[in-house]
Hints:
Elements: H1 2-23, E1 32-36, H2 38-41, H3 62-70, E2 74-76, H4 84-91, E3 101-105, H5 113-121, H6 129-142, H7 144-158, E4 163-167, H8 186-210, E5 213-215, H9 218-221, H10 248-264, H11 272-280, H12 282-290, H13 293-296, H14 312-321, H15 328-350
Parallel strand pairs: 1-2, 1-3, 3-4, 4-5
Helix pairs in contact: 3-10, 3-11, 4-7, 5-6, 6-8, 7-8
Amino acid sequence: MAMTRMFGVTAILGVAAALTVAAAPAQAANSYVALGDSYSSGTGTRTYINDGTSCQRSVYAYPSLVASSKGLPLNFRACSGAKVADVTNTQLSALTSATTHVTISVGGNDAGFADVITECAQPGWMSDCNGAINTAQGIINNTLPGRLSTLYSSIRSRAPYAKVVVVGYPRIFMGEDCNAFTWFSPDEESRLNQTADLLNSKISAAASARGFTFSNPTSRFIGHAVCDSPEWINGLSNPVSESYHPNVAGHRDGYAPLVAPALTGTALTVNAATLRKAERAGAGQAAKQRQYAAADRTISPEVFRAPDLTTPRAKAAAAKAGVDLSSRASIDAADRQWSARQAKAQAELATR
């Protein structure tokens, strides 16, 4: 009888051990899927893999650098212009029970990031920057949390064993506009930075509710915004699609050292060897992403548009404001006057 009971206990323990192994097969092998938008794909680094899409995936983006440094096989699905719906429709299929690591940045395009920056870059006498910001903040407060909650639930369902790190957005501005052909006022820059903070707070809350880790880049990028030295975020650039996105230094020294410890538990300082390894992986990554090219081409890049004072709209606004478009002094003086007026109106609205 004792032998029978011993055999029964042994058999039960054996079955339990087998079930434990079967429950988490993914832990035996590492697999990293990078999801999200242009802040993950590497827009702003000026060098992109040839994958047949407009996703602007770069070997210098933080997913590539982290994967190369930590030896993680990467499926680089992040794509410029992606909104929450695009991630759901075109990127989540890359996740499986064998996925062990996931990063994602998304939400900025849902809030109309590029359109808001485009509006605010224009002279005050022809723009409604505060209106654009108010609309974006309304979306961030009222619409985005539900979208993120649904998306994060889908990520966990598809990748049940993965470590998931949700990555936020830096403040873009430092209080001054050093670019000759944009007209961001200090008050507008302050509100735009506040909007980035608001976006991060909503993303962080949704990530925490799902049990994901949130990596906030705000403090790391302080001193490296547009017009800072060194600048980790591009200002107005040529080509214009590079504008207002982290550059190579932003990914190398900003994002990669921030994300790596949260994702892998170990620190990362990107060195020359890491860069060479990431560069060598580019061709293979391009080949891997071509299988998704048809789906990726359904995503429309969200592109900042530089101010154009030659349009009929600009000419009409200038005439109404008494601006001489042939005089930069006249353009700038009216911009300061209108921006001050709009800042005052916004402050009064905020106190009601």
